[in-house]
Amino acid sequence: MTKVFLNKKMNPRIAGGHPWIFGNELQPIPENITPGDLVEVYNNDKKLIGIGYYNPKSQITVRLLTRKKEKIDEDFFYNRIMLAWQYRQKLGYRENCRLVFGEADGLPALIIDKFNAYFVIQTLALGIDRWKPAIIAALEQIFHPKGIYERNDVPVRELEGLPQQKGFLSAAFPTNILLNENGLQFYVDIENGQKTGYFLDQQHNRNAIEPIVKNANVLGAFTYTGTFEIHAAHFGAQKVKGIDISEQAVQQANKNAALNGLENICRFEVANAFDVLKQWAKEEQKYDVVMLDPPAFTKSRSNIQNALNGYKEINLRGMKLVENGGFLVTSSCSNLITPQQFLTTIEMAAKDARKRIRQVLFQTQSNDHPIIRGLDNTEYLKFLIVEVQDQ
Question: How far apart are alpha carbons 61 and 38 in whole angstroms?
């Protein structure tokens, strides 16, 4: 295995356990390394830092798999995936969960979502992509799945010199599947849905709205396939309206409402949230609960301020639609937005909307997406419920 060396002054981030090593943190690399190969990383004093996969095309030149000298083979990946599953089982997961959450499970750039007996995989770096056969073999051995699907149709792979692609990694199977959550059922399109087809990271947060939606008139924006809104109806809301800009998502949301016998309470329609929230506020429409769950507004540090402006704008408009003493439920999945930036933005929105807010709940993603302190990318979801009062 080729050896590479860190610069004389090692970044404290690496010393503290972070698995990413950037190109400018390494001494000149031997020319005979094939991109995707495993390398041993040493500090300037020739002490082993770890073993990881190497890709000179990526800004993250080495992603560490281990901090000790051990054999990286099929058994290594089997054991890591088994450990990830045992951890989720300890937390009570059985049917649906994020089985592997990249660096948080010691498998950088690997995502595996488990939807009962079906699995969706993303291999987002060249090094882990080369181990895909070992990953598939481990899933087959541990779970005997009904199907495995690849959702590598994501632009980040191009930064690794990889093509975007999706397709079956097992025998073909119907890719519209049924998922159970909190006594409800949802259609999941793992072939064409966003990300891996379903947002497992909001499982616990969907439960959190139960106390505030009973007998309420609820509005949900950026609804996608209606999971928050259908939970609201299930928890006793009198009336629920959901909007999304995607016609396909709205069709699926209405099907999900009918699947659960809630079509008389939930109604979904196609609309641009930025436009209609502003218009409805002018019309002085009011709701007991307004829920906002937008997509990530930025994937680039250079665009953070624009993203914050976007979050401020939609939350300001959302607050204006909340009845005095009602509730705003709002999220951000932009990993480049810190929790403090998000909370400050909500405070600024409240000030501009002339509202007083009182925090009910603030939390992160469901715990099948574990957070590792020091790995900022593992703590990405911000979920907030506030009471909204007139000033």
Answer: 11
